[in-house]
């Protein structure tokens, strides 16, 4: 293709791309013909000059993120079609114009054929987060595609990419509204209310990916004493209260998160006094809770964001789960999660199994959990299944 650099792969290194995996690793590249800068669109070819795909070039282990396996340069219509397809999926799973839930993930990176792009929808406000320079460069096209595709459903578009743009790049992203304006909004999730602050909050403002798992906590909470560790803004705690928990304690190391949790408790349960929140280190809090709780939720932040920290992360998962197993009441339920993409389901399970063995408790798996349907996983990109969870019965 004219004016586009070509990435030529080494012999035998093209098989994963031929199976529609969207990543080209730097070690698979034989040579690059033409001039290329980070974020540029490149064509990917096999060593036999077979066209394989189009993607954004970047400096790093993942050298190309492929967004199309067709030999056609993307224009405004191309990106609008991508957005349109993503919206269609959310319509088909009942999340567009849902009277009980008005917050969901609208675009899930590779899961929606847009590697490096996250868009979350908060009751009229689309919050974008770019993880690649290539996607950041086309943000204006994404804005137009969102406006055309969502119409009156859209109030504003806010970009929160300052901390997710690759740090080696020359681009300095600024968190700001790309279109429209909005104050922080109140959203609904299965009828419960949450205040979302995309400017100051973690991720894009809320952990949408635990929606269905929070609802499952509701089903197990009746009459139980619940501990919600690493609670952030308290999502699991509210569903536990909704499910009839006798007592709920929320714990987070961030005092601001605890303030938000208490604010959301008042928003949903102004008459209830079964909840208490603590700003404390999670590992320290878990040292002495012997027999106090019979439902515990462990949803820590990602212990490993890179492979070089994997071993330490697995030790962290083993440590917190051991403490929970040792101290939960007999007949208790443990919800335990990992949101680290580099921690596989198998490695996470091994860490939890080791913790169970150390505790000496008899443990059964009730559920194996993952992210919800608005966080789809491309079948050719299993790495997209980053959220892993187990619901365990502890005798």
Give the helix/strand layout.
Blueprint: E1 6-9, H1 15-18, E2 23-25, E3 29-33, E4 41-45, E5 51-57, E6 62-68, H2 76-92, E7 103-108, E8 117-122, E9 125-130, H3 133-137, H4 139-150, E10 156-159, E11 176-179, E12 185-189, E13 192-196, H5 211-220, E14 225-229, H6 235-242, E15 247-252, H7 255-268, E16 275-279, H8 282-285, E17 295-298, H9 310-327, E18 332-338, H10 345-359, E19 363-369, E20 388-394
Parallel strand pairs: 1-4, 9-10, 14-15, 14-17, 15-16, 17-18
Antiparallel strand pairs: 1-3, 2-6, 4-5, 5-6, 7-8, 8-9, 10-11, 12-13, 18-20, 19-20
What does this structure look like?
- With 395 residues, the protein is an alpha/beta fold.
- The protein folds into three domains: 6-68, PUA domain (Archaeosine Trna-guanine Transglycosylase, Chain: A, domain 4), CATH 2.30.130; 76-189, Transcription Regulator spoIIAA (2-Layer Sandwich); 207-394, Rossmann fold, CATH 3.40.50.
- Helices cover 27% and strands 27% of the residues.
- It has ten helices and 20 strands.
- It has helices spanning 15-18, 76-92, 133-137, 139-150, 211-220, 235-242, 255-268, 282-285, 310-327, 345-359, and strands spanning 6-9, 23-25, 29-33, 41-45, 51-57, 62-68, 103-108, 117-122, 125-130, 156-159, 176-179, 185-189, 192-196, 225-229, 247-252, 275-279, 295-298, 332-338, 363-369, 388-394.
- The strands form four sheets. Strands 16-15-14-17-18-20-19 form a seven-stranded mixed beta sheet, sandwiched between helices. The chain has a six-stranded mixed beta sheet with strand order 2-6-5-4-1-3. A five-stranded mixed beta sheet has the order 7-8-9-10-11.
- Helix 2 (76-92) crosses helix 4 (139-150) and helix 5 (211-220) runs parallel beside helix 6.
- The chain starts with 5 loop residues before the first strand and ends with a strand.
